[in-house]
UniProtKB/TrEMBL annotation:
Source organism: Geodia barretti
Domain D-isomer specific 2-hydroxyacid dehydrogenase NAD-binding per the UniProt entry, residue ranges: 1-71
Superkingdom as given in the UniProt entry: Eukaryota
UniProt-recorded Gene Ontology molecular function terms: NAD binding; oxidoreductase activity
Keywords: Oxidoreductase
UniProt name for this protein: Formate dehydrogenase
InterPro entries: D-isomer_DH_CS, D-isomer_DH_NAD-bd, NAD(P)-bd_dom_sf
Length: 120
């Protein structure tokens, strides 16, 4: 659905928030428009393919955020997600570093032992 032409037809500086499936966005085209600065940001909750390989181009793509896919999680788990996000935003707004336990990917590399293949 979101191929190169559609992404470039979006208003310059727009944000794309994908809460559907990662596959609806052309992976390489998204990287191109993000690196060109056409879109201001991308947010999604699902990679394509999933699990994403170590060399997935979105890992180094500028101005994007990936969140956990929460459909089917308990209300307790969703509360923990919300509390963690609040802590991250509070730190960011205060100009303080985000707790390393919340960093999953940093500079294109897995930063959290919880998500490292060596720990799975």
């Amino acid at each position: 659905m979101f191929d190169r032409d559609l992404l470039y037809s979006m208003k310059k500086g727009a944000y794309l928030v994908n809460t559907a499936r990662g596959r609806i966005v052309d992976t390489d085209a998204l990287v191109e428009v993000m690196e060109a600065g056409h879109l201001a940001g991308y947010a999604g909750d699902v990679w394509y393919p999933q699990p994403a390989p170590a060399d997935h181009p979105w890992r180094n793509m500028p101005n994007h955020a990936m969140t956990p896919h929460v459909s089917g999680t308990t209300l307790e788990a969703q509360r923990r997600y919300a509390n963690g996000i609040r802590e991250c935003l509070t730190s960011f707004i205060a100009g303080e570093p985000i707790d390393r336990d919340y960093i999953i990917v940093d500079g294109g590399r897995v930063a959290s032992p919880s998500y490292s293949p060596a720990y799975q």
